[in-house]
Design brief:
Helix content: 40-55%
Strand order of the largest sheet: 1-2-3
Order of helices and strands: HHHHHHHHEEEHHHHHH
Oligomer: single chain
CATH architecture of the largest domain: Orthogonal Bundle
Number of helices: 14
Shape: elongated
CATH class of the largest domain: Mainly Alpha
Structural class: mainly alpha
Number of strands: 3
Number of domains: 2
Strand content: under 5%
CATH topology of the largest domain: hpI Integrase, Chain A
């Protein structure tokens, strides 16, 4: 009986090798990371197929350079940087397989200015606190799901995946803290896996709101794994798109002030579920996280404490999340340090 001939790595198609590569990476990366790599490499595969590259062994440095030039004319520098890093890791894998030789150095990574890399949009302190105050004092809105979401997102600075992962059992309201747990086997992984697990203290006023929400507006449902999500939809645990929409709805400014864009609330489609993301003043979960981290730093919580609360490194917080102006940072230093420099005789 003859053995089946094993394929040479260089004879595999780009689509086949990408599929193989992503399967390998799922063992050491989160589903969200693999999904983003899959999208970026899908674009590269489609480009290869479009120009007639049927085997990865055909790839040359000129092809990589050509792809860079095409993508650089279509997307932002920060997006290009992410795509090229993903492509570089994939080409390294091709070299490990023996499908190509000396091709990794041909993958150019753009030198991105920090201003291009970091998204400056955030939910600022003033509208956030005005929204929360309005929710707390409006009998129709207090302890609704969108109110509960905003209280959690603002007072913890957690990622959207962490908020989605919260169960009823994670809300330790008598002790005023929320417990973030990595549960990948039941569809709620945390970005940093076990390193992302942590208790996060919340003010007692937030616990009061969540307690009212649980006993009132919350849907008493279970998810597909027989768990009870804290923030529940009618069908169980919401998907990320649903939570993102809740975020847009929760941050509409017309709850607490006249529309800053000159529209009438009763006639504005952007107050509707399907169109809330189009409001220029509504904010995504990531933008709430950015604003929350800046606010926590601004009110004097030490950066190392904020780092633990939001599960992000100090360098990442400074580079991507701390959006204060130089003057605001000076004022923060004044409050924390300079005012201690008085001379007492």
């Amino acid at each position: 009986m003859s053995r089946k001939r094993r394929p040479n790595p260089e004879d595999l198609s780009p689509r086949e090798v990408v599929k193989r590569y992503l399967k390998r990476r799922r063992a050491d990366a989160t589903d969200a990371s693999v999904d983003s790599w899959e999208y970026r490499l899908k674009l590269f595969v489609e480009w290869c197929e479009g120009i007639g590259i049927e085997r990865v062994g055909e790839l040359q440095a000129f092809d990589i350079d050509e792809y860079y030039d095409i993508r650089s004319g279509k997307i932002r520098p920060s997006t290009l940087e992410a795509e090229m890093w993903t492509l570089k890791k994939f080409v390294e894998y091709l070299e490990q397989l023996g499908a190509v030789e000396n091709l990794t150095d041909a993958v150019r990574i753009p030198d991105v200015d920090e201003d291009d890399r970091s998204d400056e949009t955030l939910l600022e302190e003033s509208p956030a606190l005005k929204l929360i105050d309005h929710y707390r004092n409006d009998d129709r809105l207090r302890a609704t799901r969108r109110h509960a979401f905003l209280e959690i997102a603002w007072h913890t600075g957690a990622r959207m995946g962490g908020i989605r992962a919260l169960d009823l059992r994670d809300a330790n309201l008598d002790e005023n803290y929320l417990e973030f747990q990595h549960r990948p086997g039941t569809d709620t992984p945390l970005k940093n896996k076990r390193r992302g697990e942590r208790p996060v203290a919340i003010p007692s006023e937030v616990s009061d709101v969540l307690r009212e929400y649980i006993h009132g507006d919350r849907h008493d449902v279970y998810d597909d794994h027989n768990r009870q999500p804290l923030l529940a939809s009618m069908r169980g645990r919401p998907g990320t798109d649903t939570i993102r929409t809740w975020s847009y709805l929760a941050t509409l400014p017309c709850y607490y002030c006249p529309c800053p864009h000159g529209r009438e609330r009763d006639e504005c489609k952007m107050t509707e579920f399907a169109h809330s993301s189009k409001c220029p003043s509504s904010r995504s979960p990531h933008q709430i996280r950015t604003g929350s981290i800046t606010w926590q730093l601004n009110i004097g919580i030490p950066p190392e404490v904020v780092s633990e609360r939001v599960n992000a490194g100090l360098d990442v917080i400074e580079r991507h999340y701390d959006k204060e102006s130089p003057l605001e940072r000076m004022e923060r230093r004044r409050r924390q340090y300079v005012e201690r420099m008085g001379v007492d005789l």
